[in-house]
Each structure stands twice: as structure tokens, then as C-alpha cells.
């Protein structure tokens, strides 16, 4: 059977002789990438390129079974998506010229698809710009993939006070969650829309909610304001990690010293390698209240914790001595306001719904991604609370399998991506640029060194998640500008080679 795949086609700059610039759509409505991928738009005029943005099956309006697509979700796989793209390219070539050069572009999962398209369908595309493509984030690699890399890089993106404060917050949340009064206090401090019903819910939802903000703010740590990381929702401020960390950096020295004295001895925030980004940019000072929900806290009553037996529901938070109650409040309020930089970037929320999203229109995308994770994109991620600012949460494949079987009725194939696409064994690949930003937590699972003269790695200081793919901005770091120049040079070489071989 066939289905109607959506794609956008722009021939404004095309002279009927130029190449096709082809975006391999990823896990969202393709218009997000259509409106963000400036590297394609800005270079199309000089290359006289035809622009094509293809939508990934099951996302946006590319629904193989219409409104019933979720009933037949087993057809949602990277292999099926790659076959869709190869088929579309064949159709375009058949309509234009069988020898027209095609260059694939993609970021994140789309970058993975762009590189895999070149590897698996080398006749379909002549080269690929694979930005922030974590193709090495799977089991089966040797040496094994460092599953803690994402958490480690998030931590490196934060300031020392910020790391310590975030690391301390998990103990406090866990302790407060054990009693009804403590949970009421958590609801008041975090300005939640509802009080968590029990300790397990309080711990799991607040841990996931706050750590989710860290992840998106680290990925979206761009030098200018953009709505890209919110999937076209509200505008994030420039350098959001700096803006969020300002709430922790404003803590008094006495509170900071109290935090350091209470943290496990093997966690040392000052010894964690910094990402290299300057701490506190102009925005951290100009907008100290960005994302904060206005309003006073309700009555916060101290909970006596001496008799509480803490059950750590997020694996384990290293036990520590209780903080002073005033310091606990300061830490949790800072974590709330840090998280608000992401969740309340609109500045319009009156309370936080920990079950919602910064852009609820994309909740379905998250559900579909969960299926992809459970089928083939089973990336092992963990935290340890020592080299990172989170809690001890080792990757447990057994738990993942049980969860995926419960949610989707399928058993993950965690080694298939490595087996199918080759992982680090890229010796037979050609004409790919793998770019990664140092600020991007995904760079720990990317290709960071050159494989050959035509499979090139570009590591970009002061860049977050595929910043090089985006439109040029006067605030772009020089390293991003230089990365784009290299990418354009490689594209030109690939096109010239394709044209010579087609003569």
C-alpha cells in the first residue's frame, strides 16, 4: 500500500541545473525544520538549489492510516522513514533529471537519518550534513557508549553554584515528599497546579519535570532568543542556562557553603570540566525574573524529618544530613525558577502542570518518540550523582523492556541500530559532515573525530544543539560561522564530484 507523504518544495532559487537540498524530517511537524534550517535557505541562491523538506511518517500530516495511524504504529521505524526518503528522491529525480545531485541535511534524529540515508542509500544522496547526530548512542559499541555522557555535559554547562544547588535539590524533594504536609509544601514552593497524591508521584514527577527543563535548556543554549527548542512555542531567552543558573548564583555564600558541606564527599562541583561558555551573559543580569510565576508562596511549614524513613523512588539519592530549613526553601525556589525559564518562557502561566509540556500541541510527538525509543532508538542514558548533578539512576535494560512491553506490547531491539547502521564502523562511508556543539549534551554520542577525508567531524565551541543548521545571526559565535563555511565547502566538493561522474 502507499500513503500521502507531505513535503515542501521551493524552486525560488533553482535554475533547473542546480542540486536538490533535501531535509530528512525528524520527530515533529516538518514546518518546524522548514522555518529553522537557515543553512539550506541561505546557501540555496549561490548553489541555485531546489529546496525539499520531507516529513517523517506518522508526524505532522504524514499519517499513513489517517486518524487510525496509532492502531498501525508498527510501521513507524527509521528504516521505513529512510525508504520513504529514498523513494521521494527517486521520484524527484525521475521528474527532473536522473543525475541531479542531492545533498541531505538533518539535525538531531534528522541528522542521524541524513547520515544513515547516505550510508544505506548512497545512490540516493551525494552527501549529508548530519548536525548533532547521536549515532553512537546505542548498545553494541566497542568501547561501549558512555551512557552518563548526556548528564555529564548538562552539568558542565552549569555554573558551580548551579550544579551544587541542583544536586542538593533531589535530597530535599525526596525528604519533603514523605508526608502530606511535605507534599503540600512542595506544591506551594513549586507553585504546582495540584498537590502530588503520594510520595512516589511527588518524587518521580518533580525529578522528571525539573531534569527535563535542564535537558532542554542545555540543548537550546543558543546565543539569541528562539522558539526552536519549544517546537515553535514560546521564545526562550538567549543563553537560557545562564538565565536559569542566575537563580542559584544569587544564593548567599553561607547557603552555598552549607550546600557544599552537606553534599556527598565524592561530588565536587568545582572540579567538573566547564563547557567553555562564559558564565552569565548579559541576559542573566538583565532578566533575573525570566520565567518566574508571580505570586507569594502559601504557608510553608517546616517538616521535622528526624523520624522519616526516606524511600528513594528514583533509584537512589545519596543520603546526606538535613539542610537548614531556610536553605532548603532557597534551593527549591531556585530550582523552580530555573525550570520556569523553560516551562514558563511565555510568562503567562499561573501554575505548573508537571504532566504537561511547554508546548502541549507536541505531546503526540513525544508519544510517537516513545514508540521509536521502544522499537529501535533505544538509547541507554544514566546519571550517577558524582560526575553529574543528578541522582543515581543507572540504565536498566530489563526495566526498559518491561516498560515498553507494558506500554506498546513490543520488545526493544537495543542492538539493532548498531548492527543495522554500523555505529562507529564508518570506514565504508563517504561524504558526510558530522557537526557537534560543545554545549550540546548530545555531543557525547556523536562522531567527534575525522574518519576519512570525506567523512569529517566538526566540533563547535559555544554551540548547542545543531546551531550550525540555523539561520545566521549577528550573535553567532565565530566558531559557528567557521563551521558553516566548512560545510559549504564540503557540499561544493560533493556536487562537483557528482557532476563529473555523471558526464
In a nutshell, what does this entry contain?
The chain is α/β, with parallel strands linked by helices and 503 residues long. It has 16 helices and seven strands.
Write structural notes for this entry.
With 503 residues, this protein is of the alpha/beta class. The protein starts with 6 loop residues before the first strand and ends with a helix. Residues 278-290, 294-298 and 303-319 have low confidence and may be disordered. Helices cover 40% and strands 7% of the residues. It has 16 helices and seven strands. Helix 6 crosses helix 9 and helix 6 crosses helix 10.
What is the helical fraction, as a range of percent?
25-40%
Q: Give, in spatial order, the strands making up the sheet with the most strands.
A: 1-3-2-4-5-6-7
Q: Please trace the helix and strand order, writing H or E for each element.
A: EEHHEHEHEHHHHHHHHHHHEEH
Average pLDDT number: 90
Number of strands: 7
Estimated radius of gyration: 24 Å
Question: What distance separates the N and C termini?
Answer: 37 Å
What's the helix count? 16
Structural class: alpha/beta
Strand content: 5-15%
Q: How would you describe the shape? A: globular
Low-pLDDT windows of residues: 278-290, 294-298, 303-319
**What is the quaternary state of this protein?**
single chain
Largest sheet: 7 strands, mixed
Topology:
Blueprint: E1 7-10, E2 20-24, H1 31-34, H2 38-47, E3 50-54, H3 78-95, E4 102-107, H4 109-120, E5 127-131, H5 149-156, H6 160-176, H7 180-190, H8 199-219, H9 240-249, H10 253-262, H11 282-286, H12 325-343, H13 363-375, H14 397-408, H15 416-421, E6 432-437, E7 455-460, H16 478-502
Parallel strand pairs: 2-3, 2-4, 4-5, 5-6, 6-7
Antiparallel strand pairs: 1-3
Amino acid at each position: 500500500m502507499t500513503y500521502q507523504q507531505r513535503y515542501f518544495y521551493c524552486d525560488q532559487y533553482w535554475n533547473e541545473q542546480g542540486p536538490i537540498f533535501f531535509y530528512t524530517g525528524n520527530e515533529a511537524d516538518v514546518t518546524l525544520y522548514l522555518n529553522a534550517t537557515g543553512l539550506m535557505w541561505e546557501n540555496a541562491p549561490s548553489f541555485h538549489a531546489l529546496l525539499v523538506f520531507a516529513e517523517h511518517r506518522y508526524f505532522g500530516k504524514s499519517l499513513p492510516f489517517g486518524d487510525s495511524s496509532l492502531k498501525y504504529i508498527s510501521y513507524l521505524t527509521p528504516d521505513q522513514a529512510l525508504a520513504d526518503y529514498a523513494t521521494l528522491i527517486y521520484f524527484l529525480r525521475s521528474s527532473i533529471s536522473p543525475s541531479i545531485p542531492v545533498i541531505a541535511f538533518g539535525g538531531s534524529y534528522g541528522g542521524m537519518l541524513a547520515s544513515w540515508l547516505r550510508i544505506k542509500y548512497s545512490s540516493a544522496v551525494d552527501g549529508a550534513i548530519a548536525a548533532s547526530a547521536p549515532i553512537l548512542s546505542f548498545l553494541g559499541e566497542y568501547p561501549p557508549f558512555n551512557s552518563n555522557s548526556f548528564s555529564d555535559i548538562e552539568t558542565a554547562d552549569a555554573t558551580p553554584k548551579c550544579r551544587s544547588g541542583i544536586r542538593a535539590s533531589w535530597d530535599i524533594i525526596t525528604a519533603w515528599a514523605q508526608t502530606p504536609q511535605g507534599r503540600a509544601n512542595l506544591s506551594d514552593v513549586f507553585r504546582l497546579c495540584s498537590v502530588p497524591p503520594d510520595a512516589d508521584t511527588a518524587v518521580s514527577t518533580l525529578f522528571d519535570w525539573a531534569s527535563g527543563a535542564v535537558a532542554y535548556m542545555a540543548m537550546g543554549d543558543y546565543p539569541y532568543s528562539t522558539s526552536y527548542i519549544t517546537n515553535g512555542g514560546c521564545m526562550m531567552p538567549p543563553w537560557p542556562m545562564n538565565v536559569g543558573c542566575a537563580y542559584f548564583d544569587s544564593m548567599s555564600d553561607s547557603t552555598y557553603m552549607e550546600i557544599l558541606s552537606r553534599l556527598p564527599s565524592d561530588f565536587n562541583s568545582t572540579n567538573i570540566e566547564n563547557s567553555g561558555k562564559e558564565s552569565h551573559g548579559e541576559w542573566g543580569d538583565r532578566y533575573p525574573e525570566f520565567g518566574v510565576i508571580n505570586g507569594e508562596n502559601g504557608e510553608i511549614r517546616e517538616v521535622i524529618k528526624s523520624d522519616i524513613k526516606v524511600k528513594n523512588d528514583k533509584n537512589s539519592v545519596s543520603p546526606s544530613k538535613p539542610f537548614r530549613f531556610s536553605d532548603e526553601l532557597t534551593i527549591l525556589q531556585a530550582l523552580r525558577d530555573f525550570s520556569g525559564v523553560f516551562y514558563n518562557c511565555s510568562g503567562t502561566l499561573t501554575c505548573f502542570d508537571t504532566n504537561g509540556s511547554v508546548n502541549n500541541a507536541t505531546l503526540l510527538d513525544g508519544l510517537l518518540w516513545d514508540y521509536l525509543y521502544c522499537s529501535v532508538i533505544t538509547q541507554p542514558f544514566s546519571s550517577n550523582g558524582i560526575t553529574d548533578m543528578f541522582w543515581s539512576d543507572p540504565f536498566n535494560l530489563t526495566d526498559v523492556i518491561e516498560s515498553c512491553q507494558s506500554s506498546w506490547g513490543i520488545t526493544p531491539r537495543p542492538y539493532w541500530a548498531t548492527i543495522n547502521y554500523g555505529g562507529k564502523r564508518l570506514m565504508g562511508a563517504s561524504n558526510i559532515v558530522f557537526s557537534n556543539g560543545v554545549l550540546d549534551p548530545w555531543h557525547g554520542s556523536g562522531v567527534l573525530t575525522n574518519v576519512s577525508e570525506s567523512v569529517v567531524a566538526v566540533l563547535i565551541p559555544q554551540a548547542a544543539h545543531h546551531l550550525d543548521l540555523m539561520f545566521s545571526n549577528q550573535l553567532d559565535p565565530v566558531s559557528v560561522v567557521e563551521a558553516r563555511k566548512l560545510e559549504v565547502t564540503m557540499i561544493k566538493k560533493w556536487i562537483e564530484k557528482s557532476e563529473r561522474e555523471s558526464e
